[in-house]
Each structure stands twice: as C-alpha cells, then as structure tokens.
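Researcher: Sequence recovery benchmark, item below. Answer with residues only.
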C-alpha cells in the first residue's frame, strides 16, 4: 500500500494530536481539558512558528502517523551550520509494525539532505531502532542529585538577580554566546526563548556584570515528599555560564538554598562535575565494587546522523581536527540507503580534512554510518571504535595516526529538547 508523506494542514492537527496522545500515554493525559490545550498548542505552533513543521503519513487518504520537524542552527566545532531535528514521531495504534516510523524517519533524512543540510538528529524512543537506521550515539547525559551545600560558596551573591520577560534580550545574548563557544550546542529559536520565559512554574536567576548577563539558572521546585511541604528538591532545567566567575556566583546561590532544598537535581553532559563539588554522591549510598560511591545515573539520548557525507566533511574543511598528513578512504555502510558501501576519499593536510577524487590511500577504513556520525561529531574516539570492532583498518598501525587526527575533537554538548 503506497504511503504519502506531506505537511499537515491546520485542520489535520486534531487527528495528529489524537495519534500522539495515544502513542505517548506515559507523558500525555486523556482528559478533555488536556486534549483541548494540547491541540491548541500544536495549532499555535503550526500557525506561528516558522522553525517547526508538522508532517503526516497517509495511506488510502487516512492519517496513520506523523512527526514534527525542527529547523535549527548548531555549533559544529566553532562553525555554525544548519541542522535538522525530528520529534513527536507517532504511529496510530492500529498501524504498529507496518513500517510507518521507518518511512517517516527515511523521509525526514531525505527532506533535509535535499535541502542541503548535512546533519540530522533526534532523541530516540528506542536507541536500537534508530541505530539500525544509521543514527550514532551522542554524549551521555548524567543526572546528579546533589546536596545544596556541596556546591562551592566562594563568591558573594552580588550581581545575582531574578530574570523576567523584559530580560529576553540579555538571555538571548548570553545563551547565543554560550552556544557559539560550545561544540554541539543548538542556537535557541525565538519560540524557545519565549516559551522558557512564559513557563509559570519556572524561575530564572542570572548573574549580571556591568549590565551584561554572564550566566543564568532556569529551575523549578518539586516536593521531596507530600507529608512535608517545607522540603523540596530544586530541579535545574538550564545551567548556562560564560566564565568561572558566573559559575561560582550561581553555585553560591544553590549552596545557600540548603535550608529548604533537599537535593539539587542536575542533568548535565559535563563529565567532570565531581571536581566542582564538595560531595558528588547522590544519596543512595550504593557502592560499586569494590569501593566506588554512586554519584549519578547516566543514559544515552541524543543521536546524530550525517545525512550528506561529502557535504559534512567539506563543512569541516576549515576546522583543524588534529595533526598529520595522510589520505584516507572511507567505506561507509548505510543499509537504509543502499546495500553497497559508499566510498569517500579524503585528504588530510596538517589536520585539515577535505574530500578529494578517488585515489590510492595509505589508510582504508570500513565503518557503519552510525559510528561514522558519532566519530565525526566527537562523541567517540577512533581507538575505542577500533577496539570494539566497529572500525576496521587495512593496517592496525594506522590507529595512532587517526588518534592524532581526532585529538582536538570535543564531545558535543546539547541541552536543547525537541
């Protein structure tokens, strides 16, 4: 049965919303009031937000699945490029196991490739499903539950202020400055900024230095237990800082909440947070053999896929990855597109890569597009992939050359949800 995938009209949003609500029962409500509000929010986005579009898959004229596409800009190793994101992928319960999700995701990849966008990303409901479709893992997310007085209290709180809607220009400038200096960070859209400021349960505390916002905390409170209204947890939604001073100022704010805050819940891709804290333990008192104290839980989330390999490498051509001079032949398996491996030849000169014509290469590499995407994004190093058997070389001696080539790569950090 032939599928048609196209943009949804405003009148079709109601049907899509019903499919989404049924597909995500764990996060959606079935009450009439919730449905009304949810449908209206989708319609508002459909009508007013230029960076988001809704697409549906139809068979025999019936909508049986849909998705939300995002048009973003992202920091790729200090260069701002266009990227695509997908969210709210939902399939009608009566049409599960009919390859609806696969068709939607294939369309999503092709849609952005045809627009000239070389990288796409998503948050997986099933990481194994999307790995098979060529998406590679990004940086893990760590959840810490920290006692407030474990944050440093080395700075006075001068310059800390509450931020409101009138501070939107300051918040925009602060975040975009952070994103321009953070590999993997997605630039905030106006829709995201406005939604953040209009959240009725969220609070924002910022550090102003001579009328310049140099960092902010977006957070909410949640009850620690129903029987004690005085004891709460503070859940950090965003922790943005531009320098050590702003980090310590905001840390001092968290430190001084200890009288009414049991734990600060912080989700972060920072792999070195315990060096900031007095005590990084999360309160479970679990030990990992032999004597390793549990500090956090960790999970895989955002996944990346290079949609256009040659264009992606060319977008990296003015970025010095590392050191060395060599020629590499990539044989890339992308079973979603073809049973044949895609062959790409690149030249490396003083750590700069560029695509070249077919030639003899001293290094020949065989890799799946999912692991290739993670490698080029800096989420994993070539030696790890080689040791795991995910990267095959014509000669093992070349692994040291590849490690030198990727030595400057930083792990991608992304705090944008979509």
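Model:
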């Amino acid at each position: 049965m032939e599928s048609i995938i196209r943009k949804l009209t405003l009148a079709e949003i109601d049907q899509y919303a019903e499919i989404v609500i049924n597909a995500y029962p764990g996060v959606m409500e079935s009450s009439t009031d919730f449905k009304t509000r949810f449908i209206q929010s989708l319609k508002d986005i459909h009508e007013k937000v230029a960076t988001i579009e809704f697409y549906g898959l139809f068979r025999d004229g019936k909508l049986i699945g849909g998705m939300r596409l995002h048009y973003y800009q992202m920091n790729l190793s200090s260069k701002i490029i266009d990227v695509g994101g997908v969210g709210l992928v939902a399939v009608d319960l009566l049409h599960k196991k009919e390859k609806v999700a696969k068709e939607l995701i294939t369309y999503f990849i092709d849609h952005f490739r045809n627009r000239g966008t070389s990288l796409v990303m998503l948050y997986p409901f099933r990481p194994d499903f999307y790995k098979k479709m060529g998406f590679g893992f990004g940086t893990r997310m760590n959840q810490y539950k920290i006692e407030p007085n474990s944050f440093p209290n080395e700075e006075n709180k001068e310059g800390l202020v509450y931020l409101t809607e009138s501070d939107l220009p300051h918040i925009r400038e602060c975040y975009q400055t952070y994103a321009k200096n953070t590999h993997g960070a997605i630039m905030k859209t106006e829709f995201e900024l406005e939604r953040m400021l209009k959240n009725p349960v969220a609070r924002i505390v910022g550090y102003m230095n001579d009328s310049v916002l140099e960092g902010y905390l977006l957070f909410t409170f949640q009850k620690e237990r129903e029987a004690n209204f005085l004891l709460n947890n503070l859940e950090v939604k965003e922790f943005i800082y531009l320098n050590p001073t702003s980090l310590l100022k905001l840390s001092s704010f968290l430190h001084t909440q200890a009288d009414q805050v049991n734990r600060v819940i912080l989700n972060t891709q920072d792999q070195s947070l315990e060096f900031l804290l007095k005590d990084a333990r999360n309160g479970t008192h679990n030990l990992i053999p032999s004597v390793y104290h549990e500090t956090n839980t960790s999970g895989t989330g955002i996944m990346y896929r290079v949609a256009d390999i040659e264009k992606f490498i060319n977008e990296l051509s003015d970025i010095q990855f590392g050191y060395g001079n060599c020629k590499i032949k990539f044989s890339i398996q992308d079973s979603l597109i073809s049973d044949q491996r895609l062959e790409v030849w690149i030249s490396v000169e003083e750590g700069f890569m560029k695509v070249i014509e077919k030639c003899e290469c001293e290094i020949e590499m065989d890799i799946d597009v999912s692991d290739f995407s993670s490698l080029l994004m800096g989420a994993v190093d070539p030696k790890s992939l080689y040791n795991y058997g995910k990267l095959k070389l014509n000669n093992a001696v070349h692994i040291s050359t590849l490690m030198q080539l990727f030595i400057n790569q930083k792990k991608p950090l992304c705090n944008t949800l979509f």
